[in-house]
């Protein structure tokens, strides 16, 4: 999905946002969550318009479990992407599920103040309604290289 970059203060347009949420919903179907049964998908939009997806991958040694957001970021970085605009996160829960603390740290470190769209899966063929945040709202006092 290629698109023009949104001005820094504005969220990407509804069409690209819906497409990003739909890709996160699709990625969720690949989740390996035999213990929690809590499947999560993520779709990370690079500034070049490329999208990298991820899903949560659980392990019997729970500390080794990876969240969908971190999988997407690590896949993107390993493929050479370094500049990002937005991420969509989709999970089946009572309310849209924002990234956990470790994911917020990873997103800040590798993506900066990007848009974060959180949504429920929605019906097949349609993305669920997304709520949007800036990373600076989710992690208002970040720890990063400026602290070192």
Would you mind describing this structure in some detail?
This protein is of the alpha+beta class. The protein has a single domain (14-147), classed as Cytidine Deaminase, domain 2, CATH 3.40.140. It contains four helices and five strands. The chain has helices at residues 14-28, 68-78, 101-111, 135-138, and strands spanning 40-46, 51-55, 84-91, 115-119, 130-134. The chain has a five-stranded mixed sheet with strand order 2-1-3-4-5. Strand 1 (40-46) and strand 2 (51-55) form a beta hairpin. Helix 2 runs parallel beside helix 3 (101-111). 40% of the residues are buried.
Coarse structural class: alpha+beta
CATH class: Alpha Beta
Number of helices: 4
Strand content: 15-25%
- Helix/strand order, N-terminal first: HEEHEHEEH
The CATH architecture designation is: 3-Layer(aba) Sandwich
CATH topology, which one? Cytidine Deaminase, domain 2
Rg (C-alpha, Å): 14 Å
CATH superfamily membership: Cytidine Deaminase, domain 2
Mean pLDDT: 89
Report the span from N to C terminus. Answer: 36 Å
Rough outline: globular
